[in-house]
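#onboarding

Welcome to the new folks! Below is a worked example of what a typical request in this channel looks like: someone posts a single protein sequence, and someone else replies with the predicted structure as tokens. Don't worry about understanding the tokens yet, we'll cover that in week two.

Example request:
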Amino acid sequence: MILAAGFGTRLLPYTKLLPKPLFPLLNEPLLLLIIRRLQAAGFDHIIVNCHYLREQIVAALAELPEVIIQEEEIVLGTGGGLHMALPHMRQEPLLVTNADIYHMVDFRELYQAHDSKDFDVTMAMHDYPRFNTVNVEGDRVTGFEAEENDHLMAFTGLHVLNPEILEEIPGNLEYSIIDRYRTLLREGGKIQALHVNGCFWTDMGTVDDYLSLHGKLLQNRIPIWDEFPRVPETTFLVDAQAETGQQIDLQDWVCIGHSHLGESVHLQRCVVWDGARVEEAGEYIDALLIPELKS
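Example response:
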């Protein structure tokens, strides 16, 4: 299951135009890339939940009838959304991923690590100081309170769970899956911590994160998923249908979608979305350029 229902408030005003899961990465919607990557790993039963701007996600997945779309009329949170999806699940462990992360964690290995052991949940964990809030001892998650003197690690947003633990989540209410995991530990349940240090991971929580990810991909500093239909040959990726002026100047790295750029435009470390129009000459540095937002 891909969790794609969030608001993406840290990415406003850009999320007024697109829900975060549909933000393009090298001109490809991230959500579609994640689906392709799951399918390539052998997952043939995929659920995607959506709430904010859900009509766009429904439209984006319209040609993928094998993907189950769960539209949520109210905000249900990570736990509530998973509980609602119970009727769509098989009687087997469920892999869950956020829709706003780019990583090199092997989905198949994560699933097999859970399936081969007697745990209720397996969480992919790594050392990421910005997000280190989970207590881990060896291969066990022991708490979520970030208590002193405990070894803290960060949750990647990738986990595998036995669906029966979701039955205790109240229906039709906003609920966090982490709150369910807290209760599970108090009940004597077991949560495995699968250490994935060394695997590249980032979320797209802020514009800086989003731009930085593009830069690392275009500069060949991190691996590019095989699911991208086109691998950039240089640090400049320009859509074949982009309209560009005669004196356009590109520096460092730039990703340009199906857009219009006027004369004497200087772009440096920029991402330009489909539909954007940059008519005025000038310098744009470390910028995300999008179509004009309608009031």
